[in-house]
Amino acid sequence: MKLHQAEVVARELLGDSVLLSYRWAGKSAAPGQFVVVRVAEPLTSLDPFLNRPFFVHDLQDSIVTLFFEVRGRGTKLLAQVEDEIFVSAPLGQGFRLDEEGPVALVGSGAGASPLGLVSKQLAWRDVAHDVYLTMTKHQSEGRDRLLALFPQARLVRTEEEAPDNRQPPIFLGELDRYAAIYASGPGPLLGAVRNAADSVSCQLAVQERMACANGSCYGCAVPVWKSGARTYLRACIEGPVFPAEVLAW
Q: Distance between CA atoms of 212 and 69, rounded to whole angstroms?
């Protein structure tokens, strides 16, 4: 995996999440693609050992913005970096934005990251879309800023309303008014959206651990249906965006 040195141009904390922007002159990311990032060049430092994969949240001219949650040492270091990072070119298979609308975007906290670029592309194409965001209690500090990242977004659930955070309620109403649904977030949310979508075209951006991000390790394998049999595809190569109906959850 080739990494490129990139200049950090902005960093903003949103509660336990971070907006990190860097300058990029390479190939542009498509909505739903991801990059892998580290704070030090791997030939000079193996701390942390693995790169961290993040969806591309926004792309404006030559500035790429990532939106991620601080969960451990690697993400904590990235949340503190001020000068430069090492980053890959865009990777994976993104959303197919081929519906004329209206469409629904559904996400949760920093897990909604790729929907930022999706929303921008839809707006550019003048495709009508609604944005639904869920938020957990520990993300409440950055609530207003999160909503500002997604114009006209509707906050539909907080952890206070669903303390177990295992079965998010479906809040989309009659889904047949949408031509498609694009969702990104934790497994329970994606599962709930898939179950509710039924006859509506639905694409889900899964969040899996990616150790190599080049398909070698199979650490990000996702169960899918293929020719009536249950098998696996790699989120980093065949995903991370999948049609909802192929996922064998």
A: 20
